[in-house]
Specification:
flavin adenine dinucleotide binding; 5-stranded parallel sheet; FAD/NAD-bd_sf; 15 helices; 2 domains; 8-stranded mixed sheet; Baeyer-Villiger monooxygenase; FAD/NAD(P)-binding domain; alpha/beta; N,N-dimethylaniline monooxygenase activity; 507 residues; Flavin_mOase-like
Length: 507
Amino acid sequence: MAEHVRVAVVGSGFGGLGAAVRLRREGITDFVVLERSDSVGGTWRDNSYPGCACDVPSHLYSFSFAPNPDWPRTFSGQEHIRAYLEHVTDVFGLRPHLRFDAEVQRMTWDAQELRWDIETSGGRYFADVVVSATGPLSDPKIPDIPGLDTFPGKVFHSARWDHDHDLTGRRVAMVGTGASAIQIVPAIQPQVERLTLFQRTPPWVMPRVDRSISGAERALHRALPFTTQLRRGLLWGIRELQVQAFTKHPDQLGLVEKLARQNMARAVKDPALRAKLTPDYRIGCKRILLSSSYYPALTRPNVDVVTGGLSEVRGSTLVAADGTEAEADVIVFGTGFHVTDMPIADRVVGADGRTLAESWKDGMEALRGASAAGFPNWMTIIGPNTGLGNSSMILMIESQLNYMADYLRQLDVLGVPPGPQGTGGGRAALDARPSAVHAWNRRVQDRMRRTVWNTGGCTSWYLDSNGRNTTIWPGTTGEFRRATRRVDLAEYEVLRAPALKKDEVTA
């Protein structure tokens, strides 16, 4: 038997758990959270590689409605963030709503019943509304490297770390130089025999000013909760002030770039290695990475930096684009995720029978980062153009939760219950008008043109296959919160179920 719920939330990371908490706070308890794994946590469950930590301060990278006075460090590690999400799950009573081992295989809009028919690996569900919170960093991407299948050793992605495979004394190849790689390299460098870093594009790296949060600080935050709010507010305000440099005046980032060069020069004395590690694009074009141990690790005698990226595998011999060869026992891919081509999009079938992937074949776009035209009563958390380059995604998630809450309130108002005369509209649905979606996307893309992400001279995972930035929000988090505070019904078409006859109502 299929379970019918008012809302089905997909995913139990920050977005999914945040949606679940907000639903309960809105008085909605008829919902499920569909999770493909066996526990909550999302990307903070999946990414358990050595050195994994957040590059946003802990007091900002947490829900405003669930402050944690006991963060152990200013930049907390994966285990602490995952424990926080488990804590949120328990404190807000979310366990009864969780459906583990329930990976969405297909969800199809039923235009007659005005509901979603959801097939999962754990059963079938009907839902009046779907909130998709699968997240853009959930499905790892491994490039198609010729000969990779001939490699005799172990191969895995950073987001699927094999903890049973001991790297001690091994020759390890690290492919990629993104946020995961710069944490993995210094964590494993002391234990491996040789570490070869295959670098396609060097990142800009700034020091990570991390420290333990003292017992006195934590006691203060527990005794006086407003001090936690003050700390969060200061962290937020500083980042809001930085936004204009990224979005309107990229030339102002020159000073930051100078500081990054000085940071590299202090740690890397070899001019040849420094040349390899110096980017040729404006700082901020790709995400600025934070680490105080990455550069020192690269100077160790058991580490080689190979430029050009991995281009071919010949058995245990790895060949770089510049022809350099290296022997390896293990290959670790830190090559990112399917961000602009999320696999979930192939599994969502809208009102006209097209999948979301087909609808987005020319690029992702959603009204206020939430609603896609032709997919009624379907919303996404961390949707197109809601990403950030310098602040906490939790701020954006909470803004989208405000939008979700008002969306559901509007559906309540629009849904007409059966009346005494035997007629009634029953449930209602909202479908984003294509004109509204296109108008919103056009405004976003117009603002994007002068940002550092588009003008900085790099190729990043923010850009889709057409070179369009469909990932980042080109403004402040405050602007986004104002834009998502209320649902504008003029931007939606209202769909209603066929009117019921009196005998059907009373049956």
